[in-house]
């Protein structure tokens, strides 16, 4: 009986979440809808980053993989005339392929050395974008990237330049991506990632090829990061090397740390909470110039008072509900 | 006497924690949901300010916004901008785009669709491509400080103040006239959208002046923090002239420090020397003596010349220094305000604040009242469109620890003689509008 009610609760929560996602843009202003589009893309970026951290490795090159997807998708469309939806996929595949190649030198390192190695690899890629004006556009990057094509169904016309329409498109793409990432984590492969994180020597002793699994996590994470980049590039219409520098990577790290990386939803909570605070609340208060200071203060406070991240709040709420339902069962 | 506790209107008891949390929540909700208050019954025109107010490039946004606030206070105190039979008070709405095209896009939509602005001023550069489509779709009038954003398609984008980097030719021309013995130059710049066209301009200007650039321009990564090796490499060829191109203030300062520490004795020329007093503090007054750049302090008496269109420049500088501090004066402190002078003039002429009408009025007759004198709408050969306002530009030199205008030089006159050199170097660095 309690199990059935928990499942019912989950179904209701899922329906409420879907309804919320559908209705959300309609209660926001136009510019907040723009922020919402970027938020959805950033959710994919930070959740894909978490997949890599499951193996215990923290990379400083993840945002560059977002950039690889963005650049590749832009170039497939602009130079080769590939239709945008297909080029987005090609961008994601390119990011995965670059990650595959980088795995060979990078996974010869672990821990801090991997962190530095991933930063160096990312910087090499960024310097290539800057150095080779043809085809990467040099420091200015690539401009006038075609947007997602409009859809015409008789009288129905969907213009994806409009943030609401692109938001729905992103929600579908990112939703599917999150589902796949969630299933991977819950699969045998995901459990192996965890095993490598906590006991890599023990995993090796039972014939787990840790190199291959680390590479797999890196490739999958980069595929979805690249997909996020492609979604970004075809919406904003421009990419340049500065958009994917280490400063942006620090933001991804902050989202992950503030949200927490123990659970699937932790980084999502981080990116959602910090984006709302930074882009909606602080801007609305008219303190544009002081936002970095507030942002820093929030980060420090969250580390001091929520050392395991925002996800610990959700865990406490869950535990409280579980406790109260147990009490009811006991008294009933 | 009645205390709040025994009054029938007493608030329910609230502990400190409840009070704090409720107050914080109310503050946030109020901030999010309350509309901005408008000026009484006067007509108000809103102007968007979409530039970096935080981050690496804030030095080219924030001081400009501060200058605009002075401009608005003065114009509003004088009764506002006269448009048709009405007087409009001017209200600036700022959005910090952090020099990020995605944030610039969100900012542009907010300013246009929610705030109802009639004109948007930007720094431009990396942020313009994020806004370009919205500008075209909405027909909104935009301005940029970087005419390299101009293309034949950017019909509602103007570069009405700073035709960066073309005015840099005036500094080189003046230097060559005053110091004909200086013949060997080196150039460095950050490897980005500002650095490259500026390098192309300096290369053309040096060639026109008969000055050899003895080494390839040194492009350093914008993430560079250690400038010692950069300067060592530059000084290895023993140049007479050290050209700092259009480096951001965060690079100009350490580059000057390194040049000082490594014993450079030649002439420094730079596009900007923002917050130069701080550089003097880090080096010495003697070392910085004679440094040439392009952006005057507005307390300079030379700006009181009758041909200068900027309103009350000396008083503007004094007010700026009073409000924000003299050391906070930078290259852009006056620029956005001078664009507002042009916009106000255009709106008055058009009898309307609507973007299309003002654009037409601003460009009417092919001439405009640029801050430093009447200038021409120009640019087809370099930008594919005549949306850049070009005329005279000042050459500034540090003398006795203070920036002083040494003269005004004509950009069109230089262009008439050396346009082929400029086009050649722009093409070589891929900076022509059809290459970008």
Question: Can you put this structure into words, describing what you see?
Answer:
The complex is a heterodimer of chains A (332) and B (436). Chain A is mostly helical and 332 residues long. Chain A has 2 domains: 30-243, no CATH class; 245-332, no CATH class. Chain A has 14 helices and 2 strands, in the order H-H-H-H-H-H-E-E-H-H-H-H-H-H-H-H. In chain A, strands 1-2 form a two-stranded antiparallel ribbon. In chain A, strand 1 and strand 2 form a beta hairpin. The longest helix of chain A is centred in the C-terminal third of the chain and has 27 residues, at 210-236. The two termini of chain A are 13 Å apart. Chain B is 40% helix and 19% strand. Chain B has 436 residues and is an alpha/beta fold. The model of chain B is unreliable at 1-17 and 19-41 (pLDDT under 50). Chain B contains 15 helices and 17 strands. Chain B folds into 2 domains: 43-164 and 313-390, Rossmann fold (3-Layer(aba) Sandwich), CATH 3.40.50.2300; 168-293 and 394-428, 3-Layer(aba) Sandwich (Rossmann fold), CATH 3.40.50. In chain B, the strands form 4 sheets. A 6-stranded mixed β-sheet of chain B has the order 2-3-1-4-5-6, sandwiched between helices. Chains A and B meet through helix 2 and helix 12 of A and helix 1, strand 3, helix 3 and helix 4 of B.
């Amino acid at each position: 009986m309690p199990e059935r009610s928990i499942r019912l609760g989950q179904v209701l929560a899922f329906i409420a979440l879907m309804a919320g996602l559908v209705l959300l843009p309609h209660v926001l202003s136009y510019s907040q809808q723009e922020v919402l589009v970027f938020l959805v893309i950033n959710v994919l970026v930070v959740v894909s980053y978490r997949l890599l951290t499951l193996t215990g490795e923290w990379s400083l090159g993840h945002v560059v993989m977002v950039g690889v997807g963005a650049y590749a998708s832009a170039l497939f469309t602009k130079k080769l005339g590939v239709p945008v939806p297909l080029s987005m996929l090609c961008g994601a595949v390119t990011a995965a392929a670059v990650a595959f190649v980088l795995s060979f030198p990078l996974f010869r390192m672990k821990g801090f050395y991997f962190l530095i190695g991933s930063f160096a690899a990312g910087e090499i890629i960024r310097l290539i974008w800057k150095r080779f004006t043809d085809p990467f556009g040099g420091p200015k990057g690539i401009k006038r990237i075609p947007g997602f094509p409009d859809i015409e169904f008789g009288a129905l016309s969907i213009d994806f330049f409009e943030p609401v329409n692109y938001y729905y498109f992103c929600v579908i793409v990112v939703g599917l991506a999150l589902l796949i990432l969630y299933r991977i984590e819950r699969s045998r492969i995901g459990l192996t990632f965890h095993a490598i994180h906590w006991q890599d020597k023990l995993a090796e002793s039972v014939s787990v090829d840790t190199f291959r699994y680390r590479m797999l996590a890196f490739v999958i994470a980069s595929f979805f990061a690249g997909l996020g980049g492609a979604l970004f590039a075809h919406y904003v219409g421009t990419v340049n090397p500065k958009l994917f520098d280490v400063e942006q990577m620090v933001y991804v790290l902050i989202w992950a740390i503030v949200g927490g990386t123990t659970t699937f939803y932790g980084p999502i909570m981080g990116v959602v909470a910090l984006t709302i605070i930074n882009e909606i609340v602080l801007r609305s208060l008219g303190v544009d110039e002081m936002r970095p200071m507030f942002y820093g203060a929030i980060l420090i406070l969250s580390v001091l008072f929520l050392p395991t991240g925002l996800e610990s709040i959700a865990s406490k709420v869950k535990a409280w509900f579980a406790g109260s339902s147990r009490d009811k069962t006991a008294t009933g | 006497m009645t205390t709040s506790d025994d009054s029938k209107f007493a608030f329910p008891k609230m502990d400190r924690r409840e009070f704090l949390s409720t107050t914080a929540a109310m503050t946030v909700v109020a901030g999010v949901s309350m509309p901005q208050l408008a000026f009484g019954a006067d007509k108000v025109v809103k102007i968007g300010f979409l530039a970096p107010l935080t981050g690496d490039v804030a030095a080219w946004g924030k001081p400009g916004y501060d200058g605009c606030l002075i401009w608005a206070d003065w114009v509003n105190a004088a009764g506002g901008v006269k448009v048709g039979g009405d007087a409009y008070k001017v209200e600036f709405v700022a959005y910090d785009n952090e020099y990020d095209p995605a944030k610039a896009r969100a900012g542009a939509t907010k300013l246009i669709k929610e705030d109802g602005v009639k004109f948007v001023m930007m720094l431009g550069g990396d942020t313009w491509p994020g806004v370009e489509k919205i500008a075209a779709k909405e027909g909104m009038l935009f301005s940029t400080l970087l005419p390299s954003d101009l293309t034949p398609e950017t019909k509602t984008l103007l570069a009405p103040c700073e035709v960066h980097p073309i005015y840099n030719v005036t500094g080189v021309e003046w230097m060559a006239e005053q110091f004909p013995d200086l013949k060997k130059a080196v150039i460095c710049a950050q490897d980005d959208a500002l650095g490259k066209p500026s390098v192309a301009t300096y290369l053309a200007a040096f060639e026109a002046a008969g000055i050899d650039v003895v080494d390839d321009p040194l492009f350093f990564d914008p993430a560079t923090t250690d400038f010692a090796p950069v300067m060592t490499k530059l000084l290895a060829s023993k140049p007479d002239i050290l050209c700092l191109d259009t480096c951001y203030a965060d690079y100009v300062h350490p580059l000057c420090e390194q040049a000082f520490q490594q014993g450079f004795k030649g002439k420094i020329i730079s596009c900007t020397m923002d917050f130069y007093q701080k550089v003097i503090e880090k080096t010495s007054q003697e070392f910085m003596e004679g440094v040439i750049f392009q952006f005057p302090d507005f307390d300079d008496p030379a700006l009181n010349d009758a041909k200068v269109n900027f309103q009350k420049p000396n008083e503007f500088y004094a007010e700026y220094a009073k409000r924000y501090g003299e050391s906070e004066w930078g290259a852009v402190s006056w620029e956005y305000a001078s664009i507002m002078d042009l916009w106000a003039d255009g709106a008055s002429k058009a009898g309307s604040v609507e973007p299309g009408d003002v654009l037409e009025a601003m460009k009417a007759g092919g001439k405009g009242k640029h801050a430093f004198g009447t200038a021409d709408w120009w640019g087809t050969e370099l930008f594919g469109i005549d949306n850049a306002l070009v005329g005279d530009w000042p050459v500034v030199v540090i003398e006795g620890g203070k920036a002083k205008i040494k003269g005004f030089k004509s950009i069109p006159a230089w262009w008439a003689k050396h346009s082929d050199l400029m086009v050649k170097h722009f093409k070589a660095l891929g900076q022509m509008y059809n290459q970008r």
